[in-house]
Protein backbone atom coordinates (compact mmCIF):
# COMPACT_ATOMS: atom_id res chain seq x y z
CA UNK A 1 0.00 0.00 0.00
CA UNK A 2 1.18 3.51 -0.70
CA UNK A 3 0.48 6.39 1.66
CA UNK A 4 1.55 9.98 1.16
CA UNK A 5 3.42 11.97 3.78
CA UNK A 6 0.34 14.18 4.09
CA UNK A 7 -1.93 11.19 4.84
CA UNK A 8 0.53 9.79 7.38
CA UNK A 9 0.79 13.16 9.14
CA UNK A 10 -2.99 13.38 9.16
CA UNK A 11 -3.21 9.92 10.75
CA UNK A 12 -0.73 10.97 13.44
CA UNK A 13 -2.71 14.15 14.19
CA UNK A 14 -5.96 12.16 14.31
CA UNK A 15 -4.43 9.55 16.64
CA UNK A 16 -5.25 6.72 14.24
CA UNK A 17 -2.19 4.70 15.31
CA UNK A 18 -2.65 2.49 18.34
CA UNK A 19 -0.52 0.01 20.29
CA UNK A 20 -1.47 -3.64 20.54
CA UNK A 21 0.29 -5.67 23.23
CA UNK A 22 1.18 -9.29 22.66
CA UNK A 23 2.38 -11.53 25.50
CA UNK A 24 5.68 -13.36 25.28
CA UNK A 25 5.19 -16.83 26.76
CA UNK A 26 7.95 -19.13 28.00
CA UNK A 27 7.97 -22.21 25.76
CA UNK A 28 8.94 -24.55 28.59
CA UNK A 29 6.95 -23.21 31.55
CA UNK A 30 4.03 -21.54 29.82
CA UNK A 31 4.23 -18.40 31.95
CA UNK A 32 4.15 -14.90 30.51
CA UNK A 33 7.67 -13.48 30.68
CA UNK A 34 7.12 -10.19 28.90
CA UNK A 35 5.25 -8.49 26.12
CA UNK A 36 5.89 -6.75 22.85
CA UNK A 37 4.09 -3.74 21.47
CA UNK A 38 2.83 -3.93 17.90
CA UNK A 39 1.76 -0.74 16.14
CA UNK A 40 -1.54 -0.82 14.26
CA UNK A 41 -3.25 1.82 12.16
CA UNK A 42 -7.01 2.12 12.58
CA UNK A 43 -7.50 3.48 9.06
CA UNK A 44 -10.96 5.01 8.53
CA UNK A 45 -11.50 3.37 5.11
CA UNK A 46 -9.16 0.35 5.09
CA UNK A 47 -9.73 -0.85 8.65
CA UNK A 48 -7.04 -2.25 10.91
CA UNK A 49 -3.63 -2.23 9.20
CA UNK A 50 -0.55 -4.05 10.47
CA UNK A 51 2.82 -2.30 10.56
CA UNK A 52 3.98 -4.00 7.37
CA UNK A 53 1.40 -1.93 5.50
CA UNK A 54 2.58 1.48 6.72
CA UNK A 55 6.14 1.30 8.13
CA UNK A 56 7.76 1.34 4.64
CA UNK A 57 5.84 4.56 3.85
CA UNK A 58 6.84 6.11 7.18
CA UNK A 59 10.49 5.26 6.53
CA UNK A 60 10.34 6.52 2.92
CA UNK A 61 8.89 9.87 3.98
CA UNK A 62 11.28 10.34 6.91
CA UNK A 63 8.46 10.55 9.47
CA UNK A 64 9.85 7.72 11.59
CA UNK A 65 12.33 9.81 13.53
CA UNK A 66 15.55 8.39 14.89
Name the overall outline: elongated
Low-confidence stretches: none
Following the backbone from N to C, one meets helices and strands in this order, namely HEEEH
Kindly estimate the percentage of residues that lie in beta strands according to DSSP.
35-45%
Look at the structure and give the mean pLDDT.
Answer: 93
Number of strands: 3
Residues in helix, %: 10-25%
**Radius of gyration (Å):** 15 Å
**What structural class is derived from the secondary structure elements?**
alpha+beta
Cα(first) to Cα(last) distance is 23 Å
- Counting DSSP H or I runs of 4 or more residues, the number of helices is 2
The neighbouring-strand order within the major sheet is 1-2-3
How many strands, which pairing sense, and closed or not: the largest β-sheet?
A: 3 strands, antiparallel
Task: Give structural notes.
- The structure is a single chain.
- With 66 residues, the chain is an alpha+beta fold.
- The protein contains two helices and three strands, in the order αβββα.
- A three-stranded antiparallel sheet has the order 1-2-3, with no helix packed on it.
- Strand 2 (32-43) and strand 3 form a beta hairpin.
- Interacts with FlhD in the FlhC(2)FlhD(4) heterohexamer, inhibiting its ability to activate transcription.
- It comes from Salmonella enterica (Salmonella choleraesuis).
- Belongs to the YdiV family.
